[in-house]
Amino acid sequence: MITSYAAGYAVVWYVTESTGSALMLAAMNIAVMLPVGLISPFGGIVADKHNRKLIMIAADGAVGIISLVAGLLILAGDVSIPLLLAVCIARAVGQAFHSPAMMAAMPMLVPDKHLLRINTLDQLLASVASIGAPAFGIFLYTTLGFSSVMFLDFAGACVAVLGLALAKIPTVVDATAKEQHVLANLRDGWRAIAKTRGLVLLIGGVTIGMMIFGPLSAVFPLMTYQHFGGDGYAASLAEAAFGVGMFVGSGILIAWGGGKRLAGLIAVAAVVVGVATAACGLLPPDAFPAFIGLVAVMAVACAWFNGPTMTLTQRNVPDDKMGRAMGLLTAAMGLATPVGIAIGGVLAEAMGVAPFFIVDGLACLTLGLVLYLPKSVRALDEG
């Protein structure tokens, strides 16, 4: 995970340094996320038809090989934006098969009362990786070269494959899924979610939230670079602050357990993120330390989105339909983010990065205020 984050940030910084364009950063982020959104439903079908452990091993192995090939090409001097776009797309395809299989296996490994904590623990580990990985990636990028970061990612993928090979992961296969065509499988996954109306509305709200928040990940480096006049290490500090905030937020959720009102917690998180994001846009260029603090606050609240959403979905969907349901959930979020980035990239380019933070924050604040109003959403916390 650390090596993957380091490689991803090295790619982001290469694009930032070589182009300085919000649109190019948006395009790179779309390349990372759009394939996940488009292919995850089919990854979910595969997860319900076949051995989920083998699917994860194959996906991680493929991503490792892609990083190895990319490192060799970069070492040979063939680094270019089209190459990096192709690498991002190929890695995203692997993720589109890995994520539904992993999320579908989780409820069979963990008792229901600990499901939120374990889902959040996975997020916490990602936060730990994101704290040091950007700085580590920049260090390797500036000292040993871009290719070294990709070679390290290959080594990390090998370790992940070995760990999965040694793990015992049960698999529930839906016999009817093997006999159905693709559209019928997708329909079954949707029906498994749609039977709970509040879950549909909640996932819809979270998806809109991903559209709103998604562009920030694309323009974070530009906010540091253009508005505050920072360099690569300053940008990595902002990323690390976000990671620390996610770590703290995840730790709070693990220790607390989230309480009984998980849907309400998601709405509160959206309000906090909205306020912190808008405040970032109001900062003067000499207030970079305040920006770091607000980013950390924003990240604490961000940690309260994915775990509760995933847990509420897992609690309301049968195990044999879980892969397809998780594939659709991943697709919704995966498609929402690049759509948001595409729109946000154009807006940020037109109005400037700082004003965009203000507009984006107000939109997220509004979402948080209305998300918990429907009775069916509140019913998720009463079940």
UniProtKB/TrEMBL annotation:
GO-annotated cellular components: plasma membrane
TM annotation in the entry: 22-47, 54-75, 81-103, 124-142, 154-177, 198-220, 232-255, 262-284, 290-307, 328-347, 353-373
Subcellular compartments: Cell membrane
Coiled coil: none
Assigned keywords, A-Z: Cell membrane, Membrane, Transmembrane, Transmembrane helix, Transport
Alphabetical list of InterPro entries matching this protein: MFS (IPR011701), MFS_trans_sf (IPR036259)
Main location: membrane
Membrane topology annotation: Multi-pass membrane protein
Molecular-function GO term, any one: transmembrane transporter activity
SUPFAM superfamilies documented for this protein: MFS general substrate transporter (SSF103473)
Domain of life: Bacteria
Name under which the protein is recorded: MFS transporter
